[in-house]
Amino acid sequence: MAQPHICFILHGRRSPAHWPDRLLRQFSRGYAVHIHITSSGLRAEEVACQAVTQGCDFVVAVGGDGTVHEVVNGVMRAPAAQRERVTLGILPVGTGNDFARSIGMNASVSRLYRLIQSGSARRLDLGCIETLGSQPATRYFANIASLGISSAVVDRVARMPRWLPAGLAYGLGTVLSLLTWRPARLRLTFDEGNVREESMINLCLANGRYFGGGLGVAPRARLDDGLLEIVMIRNATVAAFLRLLPLLRQARPIDDARVCYAQSRGLRISTEPPGCPLEADGERIGREPVRVSVLPGALRWLGRA
């Protein structure tokens, strides 16, 4: 009987140097192991797509939310029939690891091995973003997409020099965004027929519960319910937004008129003034207008929902 194939995709700058040897020691006796250390997000997508089309049974992202995002988008480039055969996993060694927190995974190689051996996997939803401007494109996200002050931070960090350490770039981007951000007027047209239009400092479209390094912004979100949890933080000052952050960390619904929750299968988003950036899983995606929807049970994952 042929050995199952496992492809590990490691973030080239974030994964510890000893991980390839550690993974080989743990898995090589029972599995055919393929290890790829990436040099860019595009390369991670290509490797993930190739792993699926070449018949790998498991594809594991070793990194943070950005690595998960890249692997997911690579897998989704493969034909649907081939995606049906693959199971995804994550070893979270990144900065935020918010999707891993939602799915209940840690950086234990031995636990990952037990999950693979036991076949402990389940189908989880996936978010889908379709940009509707002059250059239409489709991207997928496993965890949370957002628009507002959070996406402004990601957009600003993405434009900073690559030689800056990630922590310093994120901290500087956050401070600059807080100093300059002004609430945008958003128009949300839900698939269910209702329309909402008002100024918001942030909008989150959540498949998972956490973003921003542990902020439980979407406490009611479920990874397998076929719905997006929509979290709207209404027009507020930056100071008021900062005062809400400790409450967001508790991953419980906030009883505050400035925070509103809804659920939807999908919605279209536009802003005034136009051109507000959008991020997903901590990665810059593009700018509105966009349509965001959920793909129920799109991929099979190791871990718990």
Kindly describe this structure.
30% of the residues lie in helices and 35% in strands. It is built from 9 helices and 15 strands. The protein has helices at residues 19-27, 41-53, 65-76, 80-83, 98-103, 109-118, 149-158, 166-180, 238-248, and strands at residues 5-10, 32-37, 58-63, 87-92, 121-131, 137-141, 144-148, 184-190, 195-206, 228-234, 259-264, 266-272, 277-280, 283-287, 290-302. 44% of the residues are buried. Residues 1-133 form the DAGKc domain.
Which keywords apply here?
305 residues; alpha+beta; Rossmann fold; Tumour Suppressor Smad4; 2 domains; 15-stranded mixed sheet; 15 strands; 30% helix; globular; phospholipid metabolism; lipid metabolism
Distance between the termini: 32 Å
- Please tell me the total number of domains: 2
Give the integer mean of the pLDDT values.
Answer: 87
Radius of gyration: 19 Å
> Strand portion, in percent?
25-35%
Q: Number of DSSP strands?
A: 15
CATH fold call of the largest domain: Tumour Suppressor Smad4
Low-confidence stretches: none
Short account of what is shown:
By secondary structure, the protein is α+β, with helices and mostly antiparallel strands.
Task: Tell me the layout of helices and strands.
Layout: E1 5-10, H1 19-27, E2 32-37, H2 41-53, E3 58-63, H3 65-76, H4 80-83, E4 87-92, H5 98-103, H6 109-118, E5 121-131, E6 137-141, E7 144-148, H7 149-158, H8 166-180, E8 184-190, E9 195-206, E10 228-234, H9 238-248, E11 259-264, E12 266-272, E13 277-280, E14 283-287, E15 290-302
Parallel strand pairs: 1-2, 1-3, 3-4, 4-15
Antiparallel strand pairs: 5-6, 5-15, 7-9, 7-13, 8-9, 8-12, 9-10, 10-11, 12-15, 13-14
Helix pairs in contact: 2-3, 7-8
